[in-house]
Amino acid sequence: MWSVRRWLAPLAVLVALAGASPALAQFTDSYNFLKAVREKDSRKAIEILDKPGSTIVNTRDADSGETALHIVVKRSDIAWVGFVLQKGGNVNARDREGNTALMLASQARWAEGAQVLVQVRAQVDQQNRLGETALQMAVRNRDSTIAKLLLDAGASPDVNDSTGVSARALAESDPRAAAVARLFKDVPVRKARPVQGPSL
What pTM value is reported for the model? Predict the structure, then answer.
């Protein structure tokens, strides 16, 4: 009896591992893909993405919630942004803090990246967990270039964050953001919408 149990125990482990292998492979591919993106290893990234039925391009980091697009926008890498988008990257994906790639580009004052993201129809009025929009981030940076880009794409300066403050109010309260405030003068005031951060 003891010998049979001794044989059955490792067999049960092998059976369990065999059943989990597709999920394990998916996890491994996700980890290796994001690792390749961080290390700018295009050959490895393409190898993983070109597997039949792969949806790895939109996989998320287990800790930060970042997708490949978040990662490459944070390092202002226009070539990799183009690559990820071409492979089907979700331009409106959110990280754990609710930030989209467009928000990260605005935070980093990266106008070139923001322009590309707007061109592929990034949602300009999305809000993160604090209720902030990309336009509010541009105002805080006193970045009139990105603010104009977002306004031209239809962004509203009247979306309130979780504290009830809009981009318009931010600009009007900051003397050093006068250039941004001037951009808002020609934009009709819109009724403020409630905060629409990511749902849980």
Answer: 0.83
